[in-house]
Amino acid sequence: EEEEEEEEEEEEEEEEEDEKEEEEEEEEEEEEEEEEEEEEEEEEEEEEEEEEEEEEEEEDEEEEEEEEEEEEEDEDEEEEEEEDEEEEEEEEEEEEEEEEEEEEEEEEDEEEEEEEEEEEEEEEEEEEDEDEEEEEEEEEEEEEEEVEEEGEEEEEEEEEEEEEEEEEEEEDEEEEEEEEEEE
To answer: How far apart are CA 135 and CA 138, in angstroms?
Structure first.
């Protein structure tokens, strides 16, 4: 009996030990799983950090590009301003030259106008003399035409009278013929 009891105790102890071992194994497994999860989380965090860093780098690059563009624009603006200033100076010089030319032209125009006025006065006088002569000639021609027209009118009147007489004679002859036919 004692032996049996010992055996039973031993078996129980063994069972307990087995259970402990199993529990330890389970705990180890759980710890391993936890560690794995932690490692995964760490990896994810690292990836996120890398992504963030990449994004920041991209943003930095974009900012640098924008700054470069702004600098280029500033340079372009400066160049444009310089060109505008040069153009303004050239325009002012051109305007001054144009004003001088205009003044010279005005003086020339005034001289020409004076000469033209003198010529016009002379021409007007000549034209007046010519017009007077032409008027006299026209008056003479009109008088002659009036005389001719009067003669033509008289001839037309005579022709009309002759035509009327002929028409009357024809009408008389027709009336006579009608009367004869009626008789």
So the answer is: 5
